[in-house]
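TA notes. Do not distribute before section.
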Amino acid sequence: MANLLGKTETKNISKAETKNLESKETKKLEMSKNRAKKIKHSYQVKDAENALLLQTKYGDVVIEMFADIAPNHVARIKELVRQGFYNGLKFHRVIEGFMAQAGCPRGDGTGGSGKKLKAEFNRTPHKRGIVSMARAMNPDSADSQFFICYADCPWLDGQYTVWGEVTSGMEYVDMHKKGYGSSGMVDEPDEIVAISVIADL
């Protein structure tokens, strides 16, 4: 299927016609407005405009963003999400008991979107489920890469910009393929299927 199907067309496709489609093709089938509305309300987030749905092959992960303490980072993340920047990117660095990192278009931790962000360090502790920005030595070098903490990591507090927290689906983050060595680089890493702003569903 080269083009998106219209709503009337998707309603007329029976299970028998769609069950054998490859994943690439099934992803293109348009979701109905009613289904999207039900999904949107099912997450029960505080602010749908500042919440993300991160889809993985294991399940859906909901991230509520902290626009009050990291407004510039949240704004940039939403901008990238709405551009589809993160879709298909890998969790290239995953360390058991520490964190899972993604957001590099090169898949090796050296890439970004090309726009550096001024640090918005805050007092939110790096505990299990917290989402924070990866960066280089320069405090103002965060770009598109982020990490999700598997456990409490107090040594990171005040050194990296915390901008969100996983409020649902952390068990799916736990399932991501782990890396090796101190770098935690992963062979054939799991990927982000898609990220959406929940208000846009």
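Switch to the second chain here.
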Amino acid sequence: MKQLFSTKLRIILVLVVLVTAALSVVAGLTNQSVPDLVIQGLLTPFRSAATALTNTVERYYSYMFKYEALEAENQVLKAQIAQMEDVARQADATSRENERLRKTIKLQNAHESYVLQDAYIIGWSSTDFTSVLTINRGSDAGIATNMCAVTETGEVVGLVTQVGKNYAEVKTVLDSTLEISSTISSSGYNGMVKGGYMNGTEKLLKMDYLPSAAIIRNNQQVVTSGSTVYPRGLIVGSVVDAGFEQTGVAKYALLKSAADIDSLEQIFIITQYTTDVDTAGASADGSAETTAETTAPTE
């Protein structure tokens, strides 16, 4: 044990001598004293730790600064994107409106007697038996009850049933209480069209009172027969199926509505038109034309 202790002691003494000699050499080369070198050696780990901490703090500060800058830039970009999306939406809406107006001009040219009032849909109400749209035009725009509503291409949307100063309600063709005198254009068969509302046919129309001998084919177009309310020849729908009534005396046809009611944005109210129906005395308030060929739908 004594020998082992003596060996360790000698090793330590040799290391001390070597370190002292090394410090002396370094001191001579750097013009620094040995104590200074010792102190520097002791402080070096602390200086390294402090430098590392400083670098970490600087990196963290730089990160936070860049993060705030990126966050601000991100907010600006989000605002710009939102503005661009809004511009794109407005452009799309304007494009759709222009297309509708172009088609409306064609409708107007084809039916020069039509006086049309445009309106946007601002509300929808639908149940198992009713289908009503609310539009942003009313009596201030010349709209009255019993005026026909159509799309820009002359497809029947429905009938104005309630009017305020700046709004109106339109009962659509899908409503089971709305009846339209109609004709299968290719064959001339007449019947009454209303909302189907049979099981599984909620989005279809039903054309009743067709002759039992009528030959009815799919895709045949059905148009309005003409009345004091609906101009003649407006597109109501097309045949998708047919069958016999329970009595077996008459046939019925199921129709797909020509107007896609669920996707409508804008419709047009026919406030006046020419027809071959005699309307003299048809209006209770005297607002209708009393000539034999011109009428404005009235209450």
